[in-house]
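User: Modeling request: complex.
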Amino acid sequence: MPGRLRADNGVVKRSWRQPWLVYLTGGIGLIGLYYALPWNSSAQAFVYDGIGISSAAAVVAGTLINRPTRRLPWYLFAAGLLSFAIGDTIFNVYADILNTSPPVPSAADAFYLAGYPFLAGGLALLILRFDSAQRRAGLVDAAMVTASFALAQWVFVMHGQLQEATSSGEKAIALAYPAMDIVLLSGLAIFFLAPTWRTVSYRFMLASIVLLVVGDEINAVSGYAYVNASWLDSTWLLSYVLWGVAALHPSMTSLSERRPASPPRLTTARFALLAAALLTAPVVYLVQRGRGESVDILAIVLGASVLGLLVLVRMVGLVKALDRLREEERSARTNAEDAHRLIADQNERLREADRLKDEFVALISHDLRTPLTSIMGYLELAMDCAGVDERQYGYLEIVQRNSDRLLNLVNDLLFVARLEAGQLELNWKDLDIAAIARQSVEEAEPRANAKRIELTCFTEEVPLVSSDKGRMFQLFDNLISNAIKFTPDGGKIEVRVTGAAGRVCIEVSDTGIGIASDEQRQLFDRFFRATSARDGQVPGTGLGLYIARAIVDAHGGEISVESTQGSGTSFQVGLPAVPVPLRQVRELVT
Amino acid sequence: MSEARPLVLVADDEEDILMLVDAVLSGAGFDVLQARDGARAVELVRERRPQLAVLDVAMPELDGLEVMRRVHCDPATANLPIVFLSARAQEADVKRAYELGASKYVRKPFSPRELVSIVSGLLDDV
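Assistant: Request completed. Predicted assembly structure:
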C-alpha cells in the first residue's frame, strides 16, 4: 500500500518512491513466489539465485544513492553477498542441470566460504569508526562472545562433524562453515555490542546477519542434509533481502559516522555479559555430562582459560575507565570550586564598589550641602542686615548667585549618582503638564528679563501625564535655563505644550547660538559640552541635557533636538498621556 | 515680656548651622534653646518644655528621628511640633519623617526667611 511518509526535506513523498521499501516489498514478494513455484523446479532455483544477486545489486545501489562517507565496507558486503549468490548458482547448476549433488568440497563451497570474510571485513571496517577506548571495549566484548560461541560450536557441532567426516575434503568443509559462522559472528558481536547505533538500517542488517547465522547453524546441526528446497531457505533468502534493504535505507549513512563516545558505565548488562562468558565453559561441560557424551575436556579447559583471560582484560578496562572518569570528575569539581571562589571574590568586590558609590552619594548629599547651608543661610542674614550699602549688597548678590550655581551642581551630581546607582525615585501622579510649563516660565521670567529675552508660553488643554512633579519642573527648568543661557541678549524663547494622539508634546525653542549638526547626537551624553558652548564661555557642567533625557526616559517619553548653528535651537519632548476613558472625554467636551 | 516670646529648641551637631538657626529665630522674636546632640535635645524638651523643636536629622548617636520618637512617647510632650532640617533630601527620607510624625521637613540648604515663616505658622496653629 503506498502510504505517505515524510521525507527529510519536509516534502511529503509517496512511499513507493523510497527504494528500500520497494526492495523490501519486492524481495518478500519474490520469497513468496519462490515457495509458490513447484518445489525443486528450475524456476524456483532461478528465483533463489535472482534474490541472491539482487541483494548484492541492492547494496551497491544503496551505496550509490545514499552516499555514505565510507563506501568500502558496503562494497565488501556486496562482494560477500555476490559470492554467496554465485555459490547458490553453482549449487543449482549441479542440482538442476547436472541432476547430481555437488561433490564435497565443490566450487560452490569455495564461493560460500569466500563470502564470510568479506561480510566480516565490512563489519570490522564499520566498527573502526569508533573511538579507540570504545573500540577496545567492543573488541574484547566481541572476543568473549566469539570465544563462547566458538567453544559451543566446537564441542557441539564441529567436533562431531569432524569425527563423522570420512575424507579430508569433507573434514575441511565440516570445519569451514562453522568456523566462518564464528568469523561472521565475531564481526556481528562487535557491531551488536557497540552501544551507539540504533538506526533502522542497523536493525535490518542485524536481522539479516542473525538469519544467516541461524540458517547456517540449523543446517550444520542437521548434518548438512541440505540438498533440496526447504523452509530453511527462507532464512537465507530473507537474510539476502534484509541486507539489501539495510543498504538502501537512508539511515545507512549514519552507520559509518563517528558518534560521540558515551562514558563507560558498569551496567547490569555488562556484568551479565561477563558472567555469561565465565559460565560458558561450565555450562558446556554440564550439557555434555547431561547428554552422557564424552566430555571434550581440552576444548572446555582452553575455552574457560581464554574466556577467563578476556573477562579479566575487560574488567581491567572497565576499572581503568572508571578511574579516568573519577579523575575527570575530580578535576571538574576543582575547576568548579575555583570558578565559584572567583565569582564570590568578584561579587565581594562589586558589593564593595556599590557601597563606595552609595557612600559617595551620601557624601555629596550631606557633606557638600552642609557647608552650603551655612554659606547661603548667613549670606541671606547678611543681605537682610540694615548696615549693608548698595555696593556691598551687589557683592553679596554675586556670592549668592554663585552659591546657587554650586547648589545646582551638587543637585545635578546627586541626581546622576542616584540615576546610575538605580536609585532614582519617582513619585507618580497624574499631572497637567501645561500648568507646570506655565509655572516654570513664570519662574524663569526674571532671568529672561535680565537678558532682555522675550520668553513666551503657549499651552493647549492637554491630557494628564502620569509623572513626578519635581522631575517635570526640573525638566522644564533645565530646558528653559539652557535656552536662556545660549540665547544672546534681546533674543526670543518660546515654550509650547500641545496634545496629540494620546501624547503631550513639549517644545522649547530659542533664537540662540545653535549647535553644530555633528554634535547634536552627543548632546544628551553625560558631561558633553558643545563647541559653541565652550567657545562662548557659557558656564555649565554638561549634565543638564543628560538629566533631561534621563527624566524623559524614566517617563517613557522621547526627547530630540533640531538646531541650526547661529540661528537657534528647538528641543522636543513627547510624553505618553494617561489614557482617558471615552465617557470622560465626552464629559470634558460637553 | 518673656511670656510673649515663644521658646524654640534647636538641635544640630554642626556649630555653624546651630548658630545660624539661633540667629534667624532669635532675630524673628523667638527664645532659642541650643542642643548640640540628640540626648541633650531630649533632656531640654523634658526640662524646659519648648513650644516647638527644630531638629537636624543626621546627628551622631541619637538622630533627629529618634529624638522625635522619645519626645512624642512622653505624654507631657507628645504634641510638640517638630520641624526637621536635613541635608538628606531623598523622597524616601522625607516621607519617612512625615510618617513618624514630623510637622515639617525642610531641606538644607534652607532660606532663613522661609524657616521663620514655617516656624511662625506652626506656632500660630498651636
